[in-house]
Structure formats: structure tokens, C-alpha cells
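Appendix B, example 12.
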Amino acid sequence: MQKKEEQQLNSRPSAPKVEFVLRLFVTGASPNSVRAIANLKELCEEYLPGQYSLEVIDVYQEASVAQQEQIVALPLLIKKSPFPERRMIGDLSDTDKVLKGLGLKAH
């Protein structure tokens, strides 16, 4: 009987993973942009493996998208989901601040 109970416990569906939808706006290959991309990719691979999608948008190449999002400073990370939307400016080198902004760490 114990094996049946173990099977039932093991067959329970796991909680659905939350997918983080992230958009990072950068200015070409500027030093701050390159740092922001590297910092964010490293952070996502460490804290959100398999749970995120990241779109890097070069405002020089896609000015209309930047205008639509009302970008005022770069580099800029926008967390589109999960709700609420959050915006973070800078090279994203302060891991604690970025984790708090993503809602992965208590304030």
C-alpha cells in the first residue's frame, strides 16, 4: 500500500512555471548596452532557467518600438509579465535591485 501512496504523491502535477517576458532596450553596441545584455542574460540563466523570454531591442534599429514604449533613458529593461509591469534603467549590474524589480526577492 505504501508504494501506491508514493506513486500518487509522485504523480501529482507540478505547479505551472511562471514565464517572465522581458524586453531590454539598448543603444547599439555601447559599453552600457553590452554590459546590460550580459548582466541580464547571466541573471536570467541563474535565477530563471527555462522560465523567461528575452527580447533585446536596439533603438537605432527599431525606433518605432522605442517610441511606442515611451523610452526616456537607456538601457531600459521592461518586465512585461508576470504583472505588474516594471521598468529598470541602467546596466543591470546591481543583482539585488534587479531581482527585486523582477519580483524574485522580497523588498
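The helical segments are 2-10, 31-47, 63-68, 95-102. The longest strand covers residues 20-26.
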